UniProtKB/TrEMBL annotation:
InterPro entries: NTF2-like_dom_sf, SnoaL-like. It comes from Anaerobaca lacustris. SUPFAM superfamilies: NTF2-like. It holds the Pfam family SnoaL_3. Coiled coil: none annotated. Residues 14-135 form the SnoaL-like domain. This is Nuclear transport factor 2 family protein.
């Protein structure tokens, strides 16, 4: 059973991992991003298909995403909730993604972001991600302009 001290240490380690991930994403550092994931990562990203299974498939998704952006984007987070167990944890929050696409158009949208972590050989890694935006059920359109 995890003690309160163990939980605080794990929370700090996971926050460090999330900081490393955000820094790598801002820098368009694909190797830095992929170092944060388990080899068997499963991701439900906003970019099709419905899911990416495995690090190699998810690496291709990140590469495609970076190719769609002229420059490194920015990430802002808020309303984070982190729950930690002995060897698994999860976090949900709102993430703001902004930048410039390949045609020079600015984008800025808030998404719902959930990450599930697994402790592998003493190190916390991201084992699952789910990124989404709400859907207007009447128009079948993604609502990318909502703000918290």
């Amino acid at each position: 059973m995890a003690t309160q001290v163990d939980t605080k240490i794990a929370e700090a380690q996971i926050h460090h991992l999330m900081d490393d991930w955000a820094r790598a994403a801002r820098d368009k550092d694909i190797d830095g991003i992929m170092a944060c994931y388990t080899p068997d990562i499963v991701s439900f990203d906003m970019i099709p298909p419905l899911q990416y299974v495995g690090a190699e498939a998810y690496r291709k998704d990140w590469q495609m995403g970076f190719e769609m952006c002229q420059e490194a984007g920015d990430f802002e987070t808020r309303d984070e909730t982190l729950a930690v167990g002995a060897d698994v944890a999860f976090c949900h929050r709102l993430n703001r993604m902004s930048g410039t696409d390949e045609e020079g158009n600015a984008f800025d949208c808030w998404v719902r972001w959930t990450q599930c972590f697994k402790k592998v050989h003493g190190k916390w890694l991201i084992a699952h991600e789910h990124i989404s935006v709400p859907l207007d059920m009447q128009t079948n359109q993604a609502l990318t302009d909502l703000k918290p």
